[in-house]
Amino acid sequence: SVVIQECYVQNTAREYAKLYAAEAEPLEGFGEVPEIIQIFLIHRPANNIPYATVEEELVGEFVKYSVKDGKEVNFLRRDSEAGQKCCTFQHWVYEKTNGNLLVTDLQGVGMKLTDVGIATLAKGYKGFKGNCSFSFIEQFRALHQCNEYCEMLGLKSLRTTHQKQRKATPTKSKNLPNSSTVKKMMPKKAREPRDFISSEH
Question: InterPro entries, per this entry (predicted)?
């Protein structure tokens, strides 16, 4: 079921985020690291929709920090600390998995993220298959711009000579309307079968 897959993907991404935090947090000047919140699967046998997911309710401005396919530029992603650290997280996972896996659709409130996706190459990675097209990996490689957090972690630049020649026209992507990303993500949070509960913490 889609719900079980969603749970599996988010909790897999959460494990990568924990490893990223363990490496990034001790670095001087890195600061807070984004966290992917835990998602729980509940079975409701009497309900029309027998499976639902339960997670902590995120209160505040919900922001998309990375778009699944990398085609849109989100100013909050480029200019905010959380957005930059999310892009670095994507780069870190990409490098750790030798370009076989990418955590996509990073979104949430501040440093708390939810509803993420994972793209893997067609054959999957270590027995895991993502729920997003593997073309996102190609696009990430072409569009990712390293920031200071990538440098702190010592990540290798993804720019090749072929991409450097194309750098002459970076302005095109900046003119994309930002409002489209906001409109698109609103219904996603309200959809069945996700139930929200406030966390005990």
Answer: a-kinase_dom, Kinase-like_dom_sf
Let me know: does 77 contact 64? Beta carbons within 8 Å: yes
Q: Number of helices (H) and strands (E), helices first, in the chain?
A: 7, 9
Indicate which residue of 69, 79, 105, 195 is catalytic: 105
Nearest to 174 by CA among 130, 140, 143: 143
Give the three-state DSSP class for 118.
Answer: strand
CATH topology of domain 2-153: Protein kinase-like fold (3.20.200)
What is 48-101 written as a DSSP string?
SS-EEEEEEPP-S--EESS-TTS-S--HHHHHSHHHHHHHHHHHHHHHHTTTSE
Active site annotation includes 79: no
Q: How confident is the prediction along the chain (201 residues), in pLDDT tens digits per residue?
A: 788 889 999 999 999 999 999 999 999 999 999 999 999 999 989 988 888 899 999 999 998 887 665 555 455 566 789 999 999 999 999 999 999 999 999 999 999 999 999 999 988 999 898 898 888 999 889 888 899 999 999 999 987 644 444 444 444 444 444 444 443 344 344 444 444 444 444
**N-terminal to C-terminal alpha carbon distance within the chain:** 29
pTM for this one? 0.75
